[in-house]
Amino acid sequence: MVQTDDRSATDVAFANELGDSLAHLIVRNYRLNDSFTRTRVSKQLIEGAVNGVAQYLLSQNVRGFVSMPPRMGSRAHVEGVRNVLRMFGLAQSLGLDGVLVLQTQDGPLQGETTVDLLNPLAVRGLLSDEDMPEGYELVVRAIPNSAKWRRTLKEFLPRLGSVKYVDKQEAARGFLTAFVDSVRAMFQGYMASKQTNTLFTVHSGHGYQIQVYETWRYSPIVFGATKSSPVSGMLQTGYYKFQGLQSGVLTRDQGVYLAAPHSITATLGDF
Question: Could you give phi then psi for residue 168, rounded to 5 degrees?
Fold first, then answer.
């Protein structure tokens, strides 16, 4: 797997350990279909990650004052975690075999990328043109969580590619491990530069619409305002993956890329 980061073995071990210790906040909660509960748990998870990362950096004798980046705990950040928790609640209410995550190459970081089934680009990215179900338009346009939407979703879930079901414990641990890893990167990027956003440039093959998503959730958005290559756009400090759409065919790059003040470009290896 292509990497553009400088994570140490200690950083990886820390993320694995804290992700595992925070997982109980999800695993022991059976009310994740409730909006109020998701908000409360999201704030607890972010607080746990922030406190854990701060203590870790202090223990590593990092240079600079350990302070929380200003965007940590913002409404957008809470909403992102809430959306992941909603997938846990959805798996429970639909009686699925587990939580849907992307199939990715194994590495020392024991993270999982939770699939956001409420994101049309995510759903579209997991379906082939030849296997497009009749209910697809309903799924991406209907009111989420309606009874009809749930029935249609459950019918075509078996047709999704590049995904696997993992049990609640493993999914929670994997999501939080990847999330903690990005929180640490944000802390260290902010400590070094007092910045939380980076103008990032992606190099790839030509003629692709580039899409980007965080390592902890598969909820892609269009990256940049032009087709490749190169394509530039603003990213919050953290770890990302990219995919490209060309002539209706989606190619998912297998690399993991750090966007940070000291890491401002990536060359994709798969398209």
Answer: -60, -40
Query: Where does 197-267 sit in CATH, by number?
Result: 2.60.40
Nearest by Cα to 253 from 112, 233, 220, 95: 220
Q: Are 3 and 266 spatial neighbours (Cβ–Cβ below 8 Å)?
A: no
The whole-angstrom separation of Cα 40 and Cα 32 is: 10
114 closest CA partner among 102, 105, 125:
102
* Domain ranges across the chain: 197-267
185 contacts 163 by C-beta, under 8 angstroms: no
| pLDDT tens digits in sequence order for the chain, 271 residues long | 344 557 889 999 999 999 999 999 999 988 898 899 999 999 999 999 999 999 999 888 666 556 667 666 667 788 999 999 999 998 988 888 899 999 876 578 889 999 998 888 888 888 765 555 566 666 656 666 667 777 777 777 887 888 999 999 999 999 999 999 999 999 888 888 888 899 999 999 999 999 999 999 999 999 999 999 999 999 999 999 999 999 888 999 989 999 998 899 999 999 9
CA angle, 6 then 12 then 18, to 5°: 135
Residue count of the chain: 271
CB 71 within 8 A of CB 50: no
